[in-house]
Amino acid sequence: MENNDIIKIENRVYKKPSLLNDSHMHYCPGCSHGVVHKLVAEVIEELGLQEKAIGVSPVGCAVFAYNYIDIDWLEAAHGRATAMATAAKRLMPDKLVFTYQGDGDFAAIGTCESIHSCNRGESIAIIFINNAIYGMTGGQMAPTTLLGQKTATCPYGRRADLNGYPLSITPLLAQLDGTRYVTRQSVHTPANVRKTKAAIKKAFQNSMEGKGTSVVEVVSTCNTGWKLSPEKANQWMVDNMFAKYPLGDLKNVDAEKKD
Amino acid sequence: MAKIRGAVTVNSERCKGCNLCVVACPCDVLDLMKKEVNNRGYHFAYMAAPEKCIGCQSCALVCPDACIEVYRVVEK
Ligand SMILES: Cc1ncc(C[n+]2csc(CCOP(=O)(O)OP(=O)(O)O)c2C)c(N)n1
Ligand code: SF4
Ligand code: SF4
């Protein structure tokens, strides 16, 4: 059987989601942001929510997310995405409202909004891309930067005595009464991509059902900022990030209720 | 015995040559073009060994730019 006999529409098992625009994404080759954008588009399409979805894009590399996924978007000031999402969801409770934020946005300048939105239990979904660095501005140290990790602003590696400890914010959010579902995933292997997609789907369904806040942290790479090839960045993430940011569900109220 | 055959298409203008699909493929089907580049100067991915593809979608799942479409048939 030749390739031409296989490549027929009736045999197609995977395609680019139609909600992902044809516009060229500005992300660096191999960036985790692209994979997560694809999953967001796939999930919204599968849930049939394209007319109901409102995304809030951040300041950071994902600032242009509104150019890439064909739904309604708001663009928040740096760190304030969950505050804008709160307003959107309260004014239009029947909409799917989600934020898409980096660690600098969500866990540095936006920490106050992030924590209080989760504590209030706003029925929004938060997609939190943790690449342990400020990607967009040139790879500066973030609160999430690992001890010893070299960045533009800690070229000899992060030191606890000088720079404090890395902030793992997701477990803090899991302790709050307002959160319904808190999970930490990654997108470096096909199996992990599938798990992250399922997590995003659950978070979006929770928003639609008004069940409180869902947080999907995606431990990610910034291969340019880390100065590694995409493949080596994935390996560096496995070797270094997962010890501080272990993958798995941190809270799933629905699963606990079933027990 | 039924044999599963797969094939992929790569949107070569969208591809950024990141190599993640090449690494993810369990059957060593894909490679990056050695010399040829697309409009943006990237060495794009292509099926170097098409006969080995099983249509498992691993490459497409990890592609950050959604360049890959996967096709699958069961040969009787
Ligand atoms: C009020 C304000 N302060 C600082 C900046 C500069 N700035 C732009 S993006 C960014 C950090 C982005 O890092 P992160 O949220 O981790 O996202 P990434 O780019 O890594 O995806 C900063 C500090 C800004 N745009 N506005
Ligand atoms: S579908 Fe599977 S076997 Fe075929 S090229 Fe992609 S990863 Fe390789
Ligand atoms: S994963 Fe996608 S962008 Fe990267 S080389 Fe393969 S087809 Fe190109």
Short description:
The complex is a heterodimer of chains A (259) and B (76). With 259 residues, chain A is α/β, with parallel strands linked by helices.
Radius of gyration from the alpha-carbon trace of chain B, in angstroms:
12 Å
Query: What sort of overall outline of chain A do the alpha carbons produce when their principal axes are compared?
Result: globular
CATH fold-type name of chain B: Alpha-Beta Plaits
Give the strand order, joined by hyphens, for the main sheet of chain B: 1-4
Number of strands of chain B: 4
Write the H/E string of chain A, N to C: HEHEHEHEHHEHHEHEHHEH
The overall pLDDT average of chain B reads 96
Could you say which small molecules are bound to this protein? thiamine diphosphate, iron/sulfur cluster
CATH class of chain A: Alpha Beta
The CATH architecture of chain A can be given as 3-Layer(aba) Sandwich
CATH class of chain B: Alpha Beta
Strand content of chain B: 25-35%
Instruction: List the quaternary state of the chains.
Output: heterodimer
Which consecutive residue ranges of chain A, at least 5 long each, have pLDDT under 50? none
- Tell me the greatest interface: A-B, 36 and 36 residues
